[in-house]
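note to self: dont lose this again. the chain is below, predicted strucutre after it. 146 aa total, dont forget to put it in the shared folder this time
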Amino acid sequence: MELDDRLRQLAEVGPPAAAFLLLAGLWEGWVRLRGIPPYLLPAPSAVAARLLSEGPNLLAEGVYTLLEALLGFGLGSALAVGAAVAMAQWRLLERSLYPLAILIKVTPVVTVAPLFVIWFGFGLLPKVLIAALITFFPVLVNAIMG
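---
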């Protein structure tokens, strides 16, 4: 790698990295000078220390969350494409179901999520269904539009 390439990379990466470090430094200083309790606003150094100490646990939980999201995305996409194909074949079905799909879309997920937990428990299923619900409408619209 030539010097020009390295300087170009530094010019691309340098300003965002400097801005991040400046923000973290200001945050750290603000928390320490003001004596803000960690339960209200932890310092970046405390966050980094916790991240290092809890890293393996966070990684395992992150993998589980990724699994939930991917399963929900797959389920929502499959249902949406199936519904879009059916709606494209039968216009009466589209005129009947599309308004319901819009109603589902405008309903905030935060209002439905507690119901899913009550109905399906705290396991994998309600999380997958919530992810599927979030995925369903955008995929449906894009599949119908072609």
